[in-house]
Amino acid sequence: MSPEPKIVDVEVVxxxxxxxxxxxxxxxPGSGGPPIHPLAALLLLAVDNLWLLPEFxxxxxxxxxxxxxxxxxxxxxxxxxxVKKQRTWTALGYALxxxxxxxxxxxxxxxxxxxxxxxxxxxxxxxxxxxGRTVP
Length: 136
Known about the structure:
Blueprint: H1 21-25, H2 38-48, H3 54-58, H4 61-83, H5 88-103, H6 110-121
Helix pairs in contact: 2-4, 2-5, 2-6, 4-5
């Protein structure tokens, strides 16, 4: 006497739509990766190191502080918005943050932060558009 076979109900499920590999692998504007483009971090590093030049300190701080702020704010906003493809408010926030750091009249904060950002994001991403490819 063999046992009687068990009857199983089958549910038919529709197959999910196929997505091309290239489309699935392409990162979106807000997906992972570093929040700040390496070019913006390099700009912060360069402008912040201007505080070390003795000739730059001679100029009155009323001129140099706003000049450093604007010199970092506008390019960073454009880099984050156009190159990194971030939303306007997000790009504005990062540009404001880096501009305030650059406007501090010492290079105690901006230089280590700019160097740390470049190390985190990888300087090789600068020439590859932030996609993570290395430069030969």
